[in-house]
Structures are given as structure tokens and as C-alpha cells.
């Protein structure tokens, strides 16, 4: 009887991940989801990946509209004019918070905002984001920005009036920021696409990059096969640096990780833990990880392509358990069906 009671308690406390994934994927096309815990709620900040939707041009001024017409490189980016967020008490039921950040509130961007990363610091919520990376002009240079709000659901306003990190510092494409607060209060920003990853240390007020202990401002930490989407977690004093590698087109896109005793590496050895399952979904990646407070239960939130997706931007969100073995290595993720 005691065993039955224990089993039913475990089942009740375990969220149903097929349902959780179904609830996330039914929100529509979203990518690059970053999960956080703010105010006793889970929050997800993703990229809008609504390919095919007409962009609303009415909020742009004449100069911005002209620039947008001239620089249509990827149509999908043109409709990424704002970021939505989602909140949940239990990882299963999600409430949408539309337009927590709009590109029209970022004076130095006219094209798109995407791949956000959020932290709580100094009594406020900060949202790091990529903007305008594709078209680089003197007026709209592109880079990684930071926006601030009093609430996790925004509205977030551009904090600096300029990029925090500009184009191609030390060779890294300024996209996919991930802000990591270490236990000593230091904040590190991991970022970079196109196969080049940098880490930079931020000032306490998050307004600028400060030198690391060796004097470096932008340190390249690119692991072999790295594509984009860096993420960092710390467990039992070990830093787990994670990233996305491969390509959706040939079903090699997935998540890998490596370990270190330092937030700036070196990280070793690398191992892939999330990959295409031809029976479930294609190209899972650009993920984030959350630990349930007061437990050693971890979950990975990521985007993936439904098997019938015809376009690389047809990406939906998913969530699954992230498990560690007895040696502290991350086990392969078993993707839930939705
Ligand atoms: O969502 C836009 C881009 O796609 C991100 O910057 C990459 O990480 C990839 O997920």
C-alpha cells in the first residue's frame, strides 16, 4: 500500500510532458525559447517565428520603412517586429503576454528583434535581445541590445539607446544572447551565431562590457561543431556550457554540451544530447534549461520542426525532462510527442 501511495504521489507531482509540449506547440510558430522563473511563475521568452505573416508596418517612421523595403533579406525577419512572452504556474498551462518588446521601441533597430534572454537584477527585469543583424548601416548598425521593465511581462524599453554589443566584436555575429548570473553576482553574456561563440562579462548595472580576470573583453569559446544558441547552467559547482549545432535542412540540428570548473572555460568533452527523432520532430534546438526550485529536477525547453514543416521557420516550442547520470553527465533527452 505504501508503494502504491508513493507511486501515485510521484505521478501527481510529475507534470505530463506530452500535454505540456502540446500546450506550447499549439501557441503557434515560436523559436529560441528561454525559460526563467520570476515571481514564482515560469516565464518563456521566445522568438516569433511566424513565417508567412504580413508584417505590420504602420508603426515605423518613413526612414525605417524605407530601410525595411531596401533590406528585405529574409522575409521571416520582417515579421519579427515584436516579442511575446508566456507565463505558467506549473509548466503545463501557459498564458500569453503579447508584445513585451517591440522593435519600434528600439531606436537603433528597424528590422527585427529576436532570441531574447531575461534576468532579474537590481529590482528590475532585463531582456537581452538580438536586433537588425542582417542589414548593417551606420544608422541601424545591429547588435545585441538590453531592455528593462519593472515587470517580467513588460513592457520592456530599450535601456541604452544603442547596442550593448555591436557588430562582429572579435568576429562573433551579434545574435543569440544568453545572460548568466553566477553565484558571486557576476553576469556573463554568451552569444554568437554562424559558428562563432563569445563570452563577455557585464558591469553590475548591465550597461557595458568589463574586462575578465585576464583582461579580455570578448573571449572566443567556440566548441567544435558550434552553430548558435549558447546556454549556461551551473549544478553542484560545475558549469555546463550548452549550444546548438548542425542544420535543420539535413536533420543534424541538435543540442550539445561540455563541462568546466569556470564560466569562461575551457569546456570539455562535448557530447550531443538532443537530436532529430524521425518519428517525432525534426531539428530540435536553440534551447534553455530550468531547475524546479528546491529540487534537482531540470527541464529543457527548445524549439523543433513538426515533421511536415516545409520552411525552416516553422518552429514550435517543446519541453522535456533533462536528466543527469550519477557522474554528473547529462543524459540524452527523450523527446515527447505532442
Ligand atoms: O530565430 C532566429 C535564429 O534561428 C536564431 O538566432 C538562431 O539561433 C536560430 O534559432
UniProtKB/TrEMBL annotation:
<keyword id="KW-0624">Polysaccharide degradation</keyword>
<keyword id="KW-0378">Hydrolase</keyword>
<feature type="signal peptide">
    <location>
        <begin position="1"/>
        <end position="18"/>
    </location>
</feature>
<dbReference type="InterPro" id="IPR023296">
    <property type="entry name" value="Glyco_hydro_beta-prop_sf"/>
</dbReference>
<dbReference type="GO" id="GO:0004553">
    <property type="term" value="F:hydrolase activity, hydrolyzing O-glycosyl compounds"/>
</dbReference>
<dbReference type="Pfam" id="PF04616">
    <property type="entry name" value="Glyco_hydro_43"/>
</dbReference>
<dbReference type="InterPro" id="IPR052176">
    <property type="entry name" value="Glycosyl_Hydrlase_43_Enz"/>
</dbReference>
<dbReference type="InterPro" id="IPR006710">
    <property type="entry name" value="Glyco_hydro_43"/>
</dbReference>
<keyword id="KW-0732">Signal</keyword>
<dbReference type="GO" id="GO:0045493">
    <property type="term" value="P:xylan catabolic process"/>
</dbReference>
<keyword id="KW-0858">Xylan degradation</keyword>
<protein>
    <submittedName>
        <fullName>Glycosyl hydrolases family 43</fullName>
    </submittedName>
</protein>
<feature type="site" description="Important for catalytic activity, responsible for pKa modulation of the active site Glu and correct orientation of both the proton donor and substrate">
    <location>
        <position position="176"/>
    </location>
</feature>
<keyword id="KW-0326">Glycosidase</keyword>
<comment type="similarity">
    <text>Belongs to the glycosyl hydrolase 43 family.</text>
</comment>
<keyword id="KW-0119">Carbohydrate metabolism</keyword>
